[in-house]
Design brief:
By secondary structure, the chain is mainly alpha-helical. A four-stranded antiparallel beta sheet has the order 1-2-4-3. The longest helix is centred in the C-terminal third of the chain and has 41 residues.
Length: 436
């Protein structure tokens, strides 16, 4: 098969799957937005959706930092300049299908073509604005129809396997992004049983499950209340959950082995290695590795004067950090912390300022809030840094990162001390001039 043909088939199925995944996320967020919640909670939900698709910079460039449900849905559904919008995905799927029309069956091509034409008719007729939920269900149904027609009418040759490869690779990627972003959305991923915000947690985790059609599956498998560690296990490690990372990687490896010209290729080896980690991994082992990395970070940071470890509130039994937070001393300013982030990037340590105070965000700034209104909050935000916390980090990596943090810390302290020394020298000279 020509590589050009394989590329069109691969991306045709990926774009179709991406449109369905986008519709799923939008549908769940839209349904959740109808529940009683604060404006901040609603904004957080829509912001996390943009983060999953890595579209937040593009959204901010077009709409500003004020994230609203209407703007996000318009951006993710009908914005043709957004490559991950539903209209762009289905248009690209159709164009890729057109390029390999001779390889597809008539039923597959007509499904792709009619889906796009019907989409344009619905958008022009206002069907999306009248009933967003019904529109998202239609997108999901058309994706299911496309997969069913492909499986039911195409010869299971290389073309079929490239189509399946694109579908399941996109599905694995979406589930990984979903778990990653949603687990970052709350400060403590696995709260204590005494957590007073149990109702919020239920809706948070049930929304994640519903976005991948796993709510009923969870009830059937675990027959218990929704617990975050079990949600993670279901979406990552369960091979019998259709949209889990493990099930998707099984399909990727199987189809990849059927089209690979060399059984020992690096691509197949890496895919097989990842599947093996999911096949034999356990959620408690993943969490234990994370705790080991956290312990290594803590031992490094406690040895540095002026750097505070992450805060843990009284009564909290266990916190599983998704990022490792450090709080620098009072002598640091926002510009000094920004310089630390930039210097650590040159040492290949990915560090970011942890948060921006709510009153300094675009929406509240437009309402008259200014820097200086909440000085304590601003000082804490100016000195809070987030370091990467990955389960594959070894003690040596953490030690190297800690040394890099310490080196930058000492550099900043040296600069601060030099500035103070210069100021003292200037004041002394002025005093001598004045006395003389």
């Amino acid at each position: 098969m020509l590589s050009r043909t394989a590329d069109h088939l691969f991306w045709m199925s990926r774009y179709t799957e991406r449109a369905e995944n986008t519709a799923r996320l939008l549908d769940v967020n839209y349904q959740t937005s109808l529940l009683p919640q604060t404006t901040a909670d609603a904004q957080t939900g829509w912001s996390s959706l943009l983060s999953i698709s890595e579209l937040k910079p593009a959204y901010i460039a077009k709409y500003g930092e004020n994230v609203t449900a209407q703007d996000v849905m318009t951006f993710m559904v009908r914005d043709e300049k957004n490559p991950s919008s539903i209209v762009s995905c289905l248009r690209n799927a159709r164009e890729n299908a057109r390029a390999v029309r001779g390889t597809l069956t008539t039923e597959v091509w007509e499904t792709q073509n009619q889906t796009y034409l019907e989409l344009i008719r619905m958008l022009r007729g206002g069907a999306f604005e009248r009933d967003p939920g019904q529109f998202f269900e239609w997108v999901k149904f058309q994706s299911h129809l496309s997969r069913g027609v492909t499986a039911g009418t195409m010869l299971q040759d290389e073309a079929f396997h490239f189509l399946r490869l694109g579908t399941f690779l996109e599905r694995a990627d979406n589930t990984a992004r979903l778990v990653d972003v949603k687990f970052h959305a709350i400060q403590s991923d696995f709260p204590s049983v005494h957590d007073p915000d149990q109702e919020h947690d239920f809706y948070h985790w049930s929304a994640i499950l519903r976005s991948v059609s796993a709510f009923e599956v969870y009830r059937k498998v675990y027959r218990d209340v929704i617990k975050p560690e079990r949600v993670a296990e279901l979406l990552i490690l369960r091979p019998d959950m259709p949209r889990s990372m493990h099930a998707s990687l099984n399909e990727v490896v199987n189809n990849l082995s059927l089209v690979a010209s060399d059984p020992g290729s690096e691509t197949l080896r890496r895919a097989g290695k990842l599947r093996a980690e999911l096949q034999y991994g356990r959620i408690d082992e993943i969490l234990a590795r994370r705790k080991a990395v956290e312990s290594s970070y803590l031992s490094q940071m406690l040895s540095f004067e002026g750097i505070k470890p992450p805060y843990v509130a009284p009564g909290v039994d266990c916190v599983h950090w998704m990022l490792y937070l450090v709080h620098l001393g009072k002598r640091f300013t926002a510009s000094a912390c920004a310089q630390i982030v930039e210097d650590l990037a040159t040492e290949c340590v990915e560090t970011v300022m942890y948060c921006q105070p709510l009153h300094q965000q675009h929406h509240y700034m437009q309402q008259g809030w200014k820097r200086g209104a909440l000085p304590l909050t601003e000082r804490i935000a100016d000195r809070a840094l987030a370091l990467p916390l990955l389960v594959y980090l070894m003690a040596g990596h953490v030690h190297s990162g800690g040394l890099a943090v310490w080196a930058v810390f000492m550099l900043v302290m040296f600069i601060v001390n030099m500035i103070m020394l210069v100021k003292f020298f200037v004041v002394s000279m002025l005093m001598l001039v004045y006395l003389s």
